[in-house]
Amino acid sequence: MFKTAASRWGSAIHNNLPPFRLNDEEIPGLMITAAAIQIDGPSAILGQSAPIHLRRRSLLPATGMMEFDIADLEQLEANGTLINVIMHEMGHVLGFGTLWERMGLLQGIGTHDPRFIGRNAMTEFARLVGSQIPIPIPVENIGEIGTKNSHWRDSIFGNEVMTSILGGSLNPMSRLTLAALQDMGYSVKIDAADAFVLPNANQLASIRADQATDHRQQEGCNCKHRQSKTHEFAQSITR
């Protein structure tokens, strides 16, 4: 299942990153390690992940780590959602949400309306809402420190793979997410994305008017970026 998730991301991202040398080992792309551990028991936090070593010039990750709560794995596998959790965590290891602030791609931090401002993603978001003008993308604005500012806004993007809530068995990897990775510096195959439409017509109208808000309470991905080369994790996901 981990190989399936890696292959899915790999089908959309060109592996043309410069080699990274670590302890006399040359890493040609992104090396991710994963482990099943005890975190907090059933439900709540299902897993946690982060990029660890970053390339000096691009800031794109060379290594990362994912850990999954052993108490939740059997149920996630039984209901068919484990692959979605793995996909989501790999996205954070790639830098989605964990490196935005450092890369200058996030505006409105600490406000009620944080937005992702990468040009490619803004163009894709405009396409989703039927606008000719690029629009900053709403980022999660409620929840704990790790949930806010690190995901697409759940109330708008629903079950997209990089929202903070596990939304059933189908969590599409949209053109919007791939465009955000492109803004971060990855070379992507945008047409490798899954089909995706905004889930709510009323909120679509609100987005067009640039008045999207979200006051709904939720449990989400409790993630916090730490610039560290030790065993510290940026993402804790409640999905």
Provide key terms for this protein.
single chain; Leishmanolysin, domain 2; 4-stranded mixed β-sheet; 3-stranded antiparallel β-sheet; 26% helix; 14% strand
Q: Output the number of helix runs.
A: 7
Radius of gyration, whole Å: 17 Å
The CATH homologous superfamily is termed Leishmanolysin , domain 2
- What is the succession of H and E elements? HEEEEEHHEEHEHHHE
Distance between the termini: 18 Å
Q: What percent strand?
A: 5-15%
Arithmetic mean pLDDT = 84
Largest sheet: 4 strands, mixed
Helix content: 25-40%
CATH domain class: Alpha Beta
- What form results from the Cα inertia axes? globular
Structural class given helices, strands, pairing?
A: alpha+beta
In terms of per-residue confidence, which ranges show pLDDT below 50 for 5 or more consecutive residues? 207-239
The quaternary structure here is single chain
Strands of the biggest beta sheet: in what spatial order?
3-5-4-9
Total DSSP E strands: 9
What is the CATH fold-level name?
Leishmanolysin, domain 2
Walkthrough of the structure:
The protein has 239 residues and is α+β, with helices and mostly antiparallel strands. It has one domain: Leishmanolysin, domain 2. It contains 7 helices and 9 strands. The protein has helices spanning 2-10, 70-78, 82-93, 119-129, 154-157, 175-184, 201-208, and strands at residues 20-22, 25-27, 31-37, 47-51, 63-69, 106-107, 115-116, 137-138, 235-237. The strands form 3 sheets. A 4-stranded mixed sheet has the order 3-5-4-9. β6 (106-107) and β7 (115-116) form a beta hairpin. The protein is globular, with a radius of gyration of 17 Å. Residues 207-239 have low confidence and may be disordered.
